[in-house]
Structure formats: C-alpha cells, structure tokens
C-alpha cells in the first residue's frame, strides 16, 4: 500500500555527486578533446607530404625530372610569389594538389596570399647535399609543412629548406615547427 508522503526524485547530495563526477571527467579529457583538431590537421599534413613524395618518385621513375625551382606547390607557376607549377602531377593526385588543411597556415619565412596553405618544395640548392644532422650526400628534394603540435615536428622550418634536419628544441618558436621529408638521390 502506498503512503501519501513517498516522493520520487533525487536528493541534493546525489545531484552534487553527479555534478562532481562530470566535472572531474571534463577536466581529465578536456586537453585531449581540445587537441584533437590540431592533431588531425598534422596527420593530414604528414600524409599529404608522403603522397607528394610518392608521386614525385613515381613520375621520376617514368622519366619525369624533379622540379628544379624552390617554392610553394601550386597549379600555376609564379616565381615572383614563389609558386611552382605542379599541374603535370595533377592526375596522379586525383585531380587536386594537396594543400594545408588549415587556412592561413604559412611556412616560416613565407608570406603573401599565394603562399598561405601551401606545402613547400625545395631541390638540393647546392648539389653538395644536406648539412646539420643529416648524413652528407646529395639529395633530390625537401618537402616541408608547418605542424601545430611540437611532438609532430622533426625539423626546424628555417633549416629544413636547406636540407638540414636540425631538431626542434625547447626554445623553438611554434612558427618554426615543421615536418620535413628529405629525399636522397
């Protein structure tokens, strides 16, 4: 038999415990949740550079020379804005040349509207091979992209374009964190 005084619901203590549990979980997982977009963009950048590397090597094996100019990968050539025409590789990229997934991302030292969101390509400028922490010998090219998460960087942007994979140190500015692919001959 039911009594008139029986009420269903939550007590104030039960509600406070649930709110405290939710707060602890939010604090524990917030850094992971907030870092996920940057990690995803870095993963896309690295995958894009690896795809560009594979296309360049594949075309080179079939007789197409590597580009000889340094600059940002584009579908048009504009030396004044450091753009290199990669349109001959367009079919190999599925009709679209990979670009940086974050609008406005500029590789260290680059500026201007035509360089935003582009990946950087540089041939061996000297023919003498890389310097820094890379074994000596000639290399064919360097591919470069800024990364947002320091642990994803494998080189300083400022030195990687010259073929040196100088490590990212504790004092390195975020704009100088890069993922570089150095392709040896």
Overview of this protein structure:
The protein is α+β, with helices and mostly antiparallel strands and 185 residues long. It is 29% helix and 16% strand. The chain is built from 2 helices and 6 strands, in the order αβββββαβ. The chain has a 6-stranded mixed beta sheet with strand order 2-1-3-4-6-5. The chain is elongated. The termini are far apart. 28% of the residues are buried. About 5% of the residues have low confidence.
Chart the SSEs and their pairings:
Blueprint: H1 12-61, E1 71-74, E2 83-85, E3 120-123, E4 139-146, E5 155-156, H2 157-160, E6 177-184
Parallel strand pairs: 1-2
Antiparallel strand pairs: 1-3, 3-4, 4-6, 5-6
Q: What is the number of helices?
A: 2
**Count of distinct strands:** 6
How far the N terminus sits from the C terminus, by CA atoms, comes to 89 Å
User: SSE order in H/E notation?
Assistant: HEEEEEHE
Q: What is the radius of gyration computed over CA atoms, rounded to a whole number of angstroms?
A: 25 Å
> Globular, elongated, flat, extended or rod-shaped: what is the shape?
elongated
């Amino acid at each position: 038999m039911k009594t008139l005084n029986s009420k269903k619901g939550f007590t104030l203590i039960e509600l406070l415990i649930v709110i405290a549990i939710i707060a602890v979980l939010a604090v524990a997982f917030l850094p992971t949740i907030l870092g996920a977009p940057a990690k995803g963009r870095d993963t896309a950048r690295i995958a894009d550079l690896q795809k560009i590397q594979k296309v360049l090597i594949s075309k080179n094996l079939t007789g197409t020379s590597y580009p000889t100019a340094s600059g940002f990968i584009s579908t048009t050539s504009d030396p004044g804005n450091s753009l290199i025409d990669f349109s001959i590789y367009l079919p190999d990229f599925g009709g679209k040349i990979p670009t940086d997934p974050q609008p406005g991302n500029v590789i260290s030292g680059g500026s201007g509207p035509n360089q935003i969101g582009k990946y950087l390509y540089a041939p061996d400028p000297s023919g003498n091979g890389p310097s820094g922490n890379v074994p000596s010998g000639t290399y064919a090219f360097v591919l470069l992209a800024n990364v947002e998460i320091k642990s994803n960087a494998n080189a300083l942007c400022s030195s990687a374009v010259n073929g040196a994979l100088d490590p990212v140190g504790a004092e390195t500015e975020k704009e100088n964190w890069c993922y570089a692919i150095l392709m040896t001959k």
